[in-house]
TrEMBL record:
This is dUTP diphosphatase. Keywords: Hydrolase, Nucleotide metabolism. It comes from viral metagenome. Its EC number is 3.6.1.23. Belongs to the dUTPase family. CDD domains: trimeric_dUTPase. Residues 18-146 form the dUTPase-like domain. InterPro entries: dUTPase, dUTPase-like, dUTPase-like_sf, dUTPase_trimeric. One of its GO terms (molecular function) is dUTP diphosphatase activity. It is an enzyme of class 3 (hydrolase). GO terms for biological process: dUMP biosynthetic process; dUTP catabolic process.
Length: 154
């Protein structure tokens, strides 16, 4: 079995390749390729200046998850919203940053670490249509049903 290889294409002169922060880091840090201001309680797509592809054994069974950096969230109340890079996507990798702060504008500078890319294996099941599901003890109990007495309805 061959190891996956991530190929990085620079789309801007000042783009940087993703880097692992430590020998055993799960994710690769990615960097902003732009200067941006994100006002309180808003979000912006931030370009990384790179596109990616990968190859290796079963490469099409993997995707990159765009994940938050814990330090960014802890220090500045900035989070990364959902992001996925599919195997067949070849455009620029963007990061959707959300400024959850109530008062301060968040300044993103070129070269700032803004997210991490985590490569994860996927299993794409076939879809079957049924009229009934098998019964389980849990049934349709959702959000908190296994440990919270009752979540109020909206």
């Amino acid at each position: 079995m061959s190891q996956l290889q991530l190929n990085v294409k620079y789309l801007r002169e000042d783009a940087r390749e993703p880097v692992y922060g430590s020998d055993y880091a799960a994710g690769m840090d990615v960097f902003s390729a732009v200067d941006e201001s994100i006002p309180p309680r808003t979000r912006k797509l931030i370009g990384t200046g790179i596109s990616v592809s990968w190859k290796g054994c079963d490469a099409e069974h993997y995707y990159l998850r765009v994940a938050p950096r814990s330090g960014l969230a802890a220090k500045s109340s900035v989070d990364v919203s959902a992001g996925v890079v599919d195997y067949d996507y070849r455009g620029e990798v963007f990061v959707l940053l959300v400024n959850n702060h109530n008062e301060n504008t968040f300044e993103v500078k070129k070269g700032d670490k803004i997210a991490q890319l985590i490569m994860e294996k996927i299993n794409r099941p076939i879809i079957g249509i049924v009229t009934e599901h098998t019964e389980t003890k849990r049934g349709s109990g959702g959000f908190g049903s296994t440990d919270v007495p009752k979540i109020p309805s909206p």
